[in-house]
Amino acid sequence: MTTAELHGLTVHVDTGRWSETVLDSVRLEVPAGRITALLGESGCGKSMLAAALTGSLPATAHSTGDVYLGGVAVRDPRQWRRLREETVGLVPQFGVTAFGAQRTVGAQLRERQRPGRGMCVEDACAAALYPLELLELYPQQHSGGQIQRAALAAALLPGPELLIVDEPSASLDMGTAYRVWANLRAYADSGPAVLTITHDVLLLTETGVADRIAVMREGRIITIGTPAEIHALEDPYVRGFFQQIGE
């Protein structure tokens, strides 16, 4: 299975109206068979890190450093296209952006299914807790939680070796959120590397599914360790994430 690594990755964005270094010399390993949870305040670069790991940086971005998947540096756009089809799955922060508006979710999922490889639509929907009866609805006819689960099903279809989920419990009721986290744990246990980006520290703590937690601030990974190691840190920035749940 594939371990993902960022080696000194710096991403600078220049739109012509504003210019900013969004990621600054980031080093991160997302090991196969493990869940790595990424915490950080809004705007610190978490979603840009996900874009770097999927070869989806915006056209206004310039990057230095390396992305390794399975020990191989990935630099060529053609490599990234193949990897996005076969090896890397991304659930965006807003699930509706994973679909076009003009066709039903079912039609788009069936189009992405690869016979003999990965999952069938029904199995991917089951793993994502996406109800089959919603398949013939258009993306805009879904609630936020429903389309988020549809986006997870889409990401799972190729059976990716690296699965990145941005806010897995967003817009979900507590019971469904627990089950989604449990299914992510089961997916990692089957071998793939899983990276979750989340603000839901309560569920992350209560479910105990993460093997490692990385904390990001102002474009840098400032610490990474097991949940017990991260909980024990006295750094005020890190403690702030857990104080919201009374720890």
Précis, in short:
This protein is α/β, with parallel strands linked by helices. It has helices spanning 46-53, 77-86, 105-112, 121-128, 144-156, 174-189, 201-207, 227-231, 236-243, and strands spanning 4-14, 19-30, 35-40, 61-69, 72-73, 88-91, 162-166, 193-197, 212-217, 220-225. Strand 1 and strand 2 form a beta hairpin.
Strand content: 25-35%
CATH class of the largest domain: Alpha Beta
Give the N-terminus to C-terminus distance in angstroms. Answer: 36 Å
Tell me the quaternary state.
Answer: single chain
Question: Strand sequence of the main sheet, in spatial order?
Answer: 6-7-8-3-9-10
Regions with pLDDT < 50 over 5+ consecutive residues? Answer: none
Shape: globular
CATH architecture of the largest domain: 3-Layer(aba) Sandwich
Q: Gyration radius, to the nearest Å?
A: 18 Å
CATH superfamily (homologous) name of the largest domain: P-loop containing nucleotide triphosphate hydrolases
Largest sheet, if any? Answer: 6 strands, mixed
List its salient traits.
247 residues; alpha/beta; Rossmann fold; 2 domains; four-stranded antiparallel beta sheet; 9 helices; 27% strand
Explain the overall architecture.
This protein is α/β, with parallel strands linked by helices and 247 residues long. It has 2 domains: 1-87 and 162-247, P-loop containing nucleotide triphosphate hydrolases (Rossmann fold, 3-Layer(aba) Sandwich), CATH 3.40.50; 92-159, no CATH class. It has helices spanning 46-53, 77-86, 105-112, 121-128, 144-156, 174-189, 201-207, 227-231, 236-243; strands at residues 4-14, 19-30, 35-40, 61-69, 72-73, 88-91, 162-166, 193-197, 212-217, 220-225. The radius of gyration is 18 Å and the shape is globular.
